[in-house]
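Data availability excerpt. The first of two example chains:
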Amino acid sequence: RLNWTGHDAMIITVNNEIIAHAHNTFLQSAYDHGIATGIVFVLFGICGFFRSVIYMKNKSEAYLFTLLPAVVIIAFGICGMTEWIFHPSIPIAFVFLLVQAPLLSNIEKK
């Protein structure tokens, strides 16, 4: 039931049975907002992961916790495969959004 424009409600009714949500963050985002948004969301996670690896390699000597963004992005991806977790009130989603901040800065090796 995915389409390019998304849907107004998360709930799906199939054969008079109500299905609350997809239990997958990536599928639910694509269902709610459209296939293009779902693709961008997945690409955002992939790019964030690769950016976190670059951040970790270039800043690991200067800062202690450079592994944190990569670990959080991996944890978000794993948790997101089994449950709809992309809402800021859910702790892993909140931390996922927070760890994006250092990845948006200019990463120069010192």
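And the second chain:
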Amino acid sequence: MTVHEQFRQRRVKLLKGIAASFVLFAAASSLANKHPSPILVALILLAFAGFGVCTILINFACKCPRCRKCIIAINTPDTSFLSFPRYCGHCGLDFESVDADTPPI
């Protein structure tokens, strides 16, 4: 598995976490309106925190294996939301040519 594939998989997992947190937040909020409970309030806060953490991590969770700087995946209009940069913007490392299991260059 290349580093590029690993970054894409991490991004997909974080997007799933965002979706799950949103669904949990919406479900717990609608239940809390009908049946007020401190457990539901705690669940709402947990879902909100999970949503926030996943949203932040989707931008800062990937570091270049060579220079160890954050790779921020900025989407352009012609690309998919799941797309990820092929090269490091700082040192120029090609992520598709580097295997994730090998040590950095």
